[in-house]
Specification:
The two termini are 24 Å apart. The protein is an all-alpha fold. Among the domains are: 112 residues, Up-down Bundle (Four Helix Bundle (Hemerythrin (Met), subunit A)); 111 residues, Up-down Bundle (Four Helix Bundle (Hemerythrin (Met), subunit A)); 101 residues, Up-down Bundle (Four Helix Bundle (Hemerythrin (Met), subunit A)); 165 residues, Alpha-catenin/vinculin-like (Four Helix Bundle (Hemerythrin (Met), subunit A)), CATH 1.20.120. The protein is built from 24 helices and no strands. Helix 3 runs antiparallel to helix 4 and helix 3 runs parallel beside helix 5. The longest helix has 50 residues. This is Alpha-catulin. Belongs to the vinculin/alpha-catenin family. Keywords: Cytoplasm. GO terms for molecular function: actin filament binding; cadherin binding.
């Protein structure tokens, strides 16, 4: 029973749990019911045991009552779900009442043979009531989840209608009015889909949602300038092509979001992701290692076929004109070695099947399995090195943005020939980036990262021609300020995608080196009165699309710093050290602020951001205190280094704290405060990142010295440690209460199901 909601995610109702919020809401309820069903049926039951079971049963009944009231409120606001929700609520209430009745066991003084049916005399009845309760509660939650989907669809439909109006406008005045409405609708859509993205359990869907939302985020600013350019130059063909491409891409992204939340299958999404080399390697190694357990789990023909398919996919690397001769030869050599090792494996495999000397044959087969797996791992490492190395080189080479600068200059001069020449250079760079994304996809290591690589490939493929059409428009109208602004926006989008690629590269390396970690999930179930289309927050400000775009680059820097701090923290042996815990906390809060710049995560408004900045500054000052304490054990030179960095951190934290507390009025002032808060946070994380490796090194050094000193003291006098160990064990035993009735009863009393976040 306990494994149902979190294991198979399916109940008797046949409903599948697809979001974390539904799953997390069910876990406490399952724990309580499991406690009631699995109670120890002893002949003698103490007064305390009977009272505890009674309280748990009543707590379940009360919580179900509150839960049903919430469900009925949702049903009253959504007539199309009224009947289904009403029936599910009725069943939940009936099951809750049954559990309350079965757990009404009275007192220990009451005779056990008074004829009443209780949990002790009717275990089957309790199991049936529990199943009915879990089934009906799950149904209510899944029905409530449909409200979230309905919100997203409604919001998308509003955006589409306004998008159509924007595409047909013919005057600036009309455009400004409609675009203002469009911006508000896009902000609402961004928050709804951001919550949904974080709530999804399926990592592939989450990655696809992130890709679609990234397109919408970047295209919103492009749509503004592309449309204004078209209005200013209505007869310009390149301006029209530029604008049409943006509208088309936005519609595709909106459709993809709806396909994800409704699980629809369009022609475009029916295609299966191309199999990456990483997955082929994983499948091949799985087949090889299965031979240890079962010599007949596969056949030599199947194994050879898997290897040849894998080797064939490496042609994306070896056939590339951008792969050096040395890299090509290295890949071919490892592929040849893998073939030889596989042939030896097949020989040992056949021998093991036919040999009467089982032990010797098994040992020979084990050696062949290890050699084959090693050569395949070497192939993966070689391909990873080539893909990541090329991506790093490209990012360095394109950091100067020379073709973009040249295009902007040529366009401003009205030089169409120069624009054509530099367009060819940009197209070549685009092809290099597209192919590199394809290679990264092969070595990405996870399906979500594969999806992100495909998104990056598609983005470079689309934005390249859009930059060229924008440059052509500027060359035709070199005095046009709006045409110049439009080209600038598309160049910034290209730069932003390069930043995203750098982040993607780091994540692929993290997976390869086994350092990947997950951030805290955010849950998004609706609440009564909160799940209407009107999501405006009183007296709070949200960044509009233009402001979010200008924040994107700063936010990405914060994200990279947050990830780097996490990586440094993982290198510490003492994970419970105050410096480690406080640095982790700072990295988590900085990550939340990064999500804010994308319109995602827990921070919805500027008030939320400023509060987070204030909390971050306080945590930073706590870290300063820990660093000061740590510095007391250091010698002069080492102490000076730590104190110097700590003083920098103190100044920055105080600056952030004062800025966060300073009241501002007006949109411009608020935006400046947001910008200042994020910049100061970035500076704080930079100092933290510099001080962590120094502190870790010194901590290891002094820990080693203390250990040596302790060892010398132990030779002289060994304290009697038996008593403390015994006490610690007793304490541990006392606190270990996996299904203790009292702790679970307290947990259930705090349960608020749909009302909780």
């Amino acid at each position: 029973m306990a494994s149902s909601p979190c294991g198979n995610s399916n109940f008797d109702s046949g409903l599948e749990i697809k979001t974390r919020s539904v799953e997390q809401t069910l876990i406490p309820l399952v724990s309580q019911i499991t406690t009631l069903i699995n109670h120890k049926d002893r002949p003698k039951k103490s007064e305390r045991t009977l009272a505890a079971i009674h309280r748990v049963g009543q707590a379940v009944s009360v919580a179900v009552g509150r839960f049903v009231a919430v469900g009925e409120a949702i049903a009253s606001e959504n007539q199309e779900l009224k009947d289904e929700m009403g029936q599910a609520c009725f069943e939940a209430r009936r099951a809750g009442d049954a559990i309350a009745q079965l757990t009404d066991v009275g007192s220990a003084m009451q005779p056990q043979t008074d004829g009443r049916v209780t949990v002790f005399s009717d275990r089957t009845g309790m199991v049936k009531a529990a199943r009915l309760l879990l089934s009906s509660v799950t149904k209510v939650l899944v029905l409530a989840d449909r409200i979230v989907i309905k919100q997203i669809i409604t919001s998308r439909n509003k955006v589409l209608v306004t998008l159509d109006k924007l595409e047909r406008v013919s005057t600036f005045q009309e455009f400004v009015q409609i675009f203002s409405q469009f911006g508000n609708e896009m902000v609402e859509f961004a928050h709804l889909t951001g919550d949904r993205q974080n709530d999804l359990k399926d990592e592939k869907k989450k990655a696809r949602m992130a890709a679609a939302r990234a397109v919408l985020e970047k295209c919103t600013m492009m749509l503004l300038t592309a449309s204004k350019t078209c209005l200013r130059h209505p007869d310009c063909e390149s301006a029209r092509i530029n604008k049409d491409a943006v509208f088309h891409r936005m519609r595709c992204a909106l459709e993809q979001v709806i396909e994800i939340v409704t699980e629809a299958r369009s022609c475009g999404e029916n295609k299966v992701l191309p199999t990456s080399i990483y997955n082929s390697i994983k499948d091949f190694k799985g087949s090889v290692e299965c031979l240890r357990e079962n010599l007949h789990s596969s056949t030599p023909q199947i194994l050879a076929g898997q290897l040849e398919t894998l080797v064939e996919r490496t042609e994306d690397f070896t056939d590339s004109p951008y792969t050096s001769h040395e890299q090509r030869q290295a890949i071919l050599s490892v592929c040849q070695l893998a073939r030889q090792d596989t042939q030896q494996l097949v020989h040992a495999w056949i021998e093991a099947q036919q040999s009467v000397h089982a032990k010797e044959a098994t040992e020979e087969l084990e050696v062949a399995i290890l050699k084959t797996c090693q050569s395949i791992s070497d192939l993966r490492r070689e391909l990873h090195k080539v893909a990541v190395g090329r991506a790093s080189d490209l990012l360095k080479a394109h950091g100067e943005h020379l073709p973009l600068r040249a295009l902007k200059a040529a366009g401003a001069e009205g030089n169409l020939e120069a624009v054509a020449e530099y367009s060819r250079t940009l197209t070549e760079q685009k092809e290099q980036l597209v192919e590199t994304c394809r290679l990264l996809c092969h070595v990405s290591g996870t399906e979500p990262l594969e999806i992100t690589c495909i998104h990056a490939e598609e983005t470079f493929h689309v934005i390249g021609p859009q930059i060229i059409s924008a440059a052509q428009t500027l060359a035709l109208h070199p005095s046009s300020k709006i045409a110049k602004e439009n080209l600038e926006v598309f160049c910034e989008a290209w730069d932003s995608q390069l930043c995203d690629m750098a982040l993607l590269l780091k994540e692929i390396n993290d997976v390869f080196e086994g350092r990947r970690g997950d951030k805290r999930p955010y849950l998004s179930l609706p609440r009564p009165g909160k799940h209407s289309a009107n999501l405006k927050t009183a007296k709070a400000v949200k960044l509009d699309a233009e402001e979010q775009t200008s924040m994107a680059k700063l936010g990405l820097e914060l994200r990279l710093l947050s990830s780097d701090v996490d990586s440094e923290v993982e290198k510490w042996e003492e994970q419970e050290h105050d410096i480690v815990r406080q640095s982790q906390s700072l990295a988590s809060m900085a990550y939340n602020m990064y999500l804010f710049t994308r319109g995602e995560g827990l921070l919805k408004t500027t008030l939320d951001l400023f509060h987070q900045a204030e909390v971050l500054s306080e945590e930073g000052l706590q870290l300063c205190s820990s660093l000061h304490t740590f510095s007391t054990q250091l010698v002069d030179e080492e102490k000076s280094v730590v104190i110097t960095e700590t003083e920098k951190l103190v100044v920055l934290c105080q600056q952030l704290q004062m800025g966060a507390k300073t009241p501002v009025q007006g949109k411009t002032a608020t935006f400046q405060k947001v910008d200042s808060s994020i910049q100061t946070t970035r500076n704080i994380m930079t100092v933290v990142l510099s001080i962590l490796p120094i502190s870790n090194k010194l901590n290891k050094k002094y820990k080693s010295e203390r250990t040596s000193l302790s060892s010398l003291q132990d030779w002289g006098e060994r304290p009697d440690v038996s008593t403390p160990v015994k006490e610690e064990g007793a304490l541990s035993s006392k606190n270990t209460n996996g299904f203790g009735v009292k702790s679970l009863e307290q947990h259930m009393a705090g349960l608020n199901l749909l009302e909780s976040k």
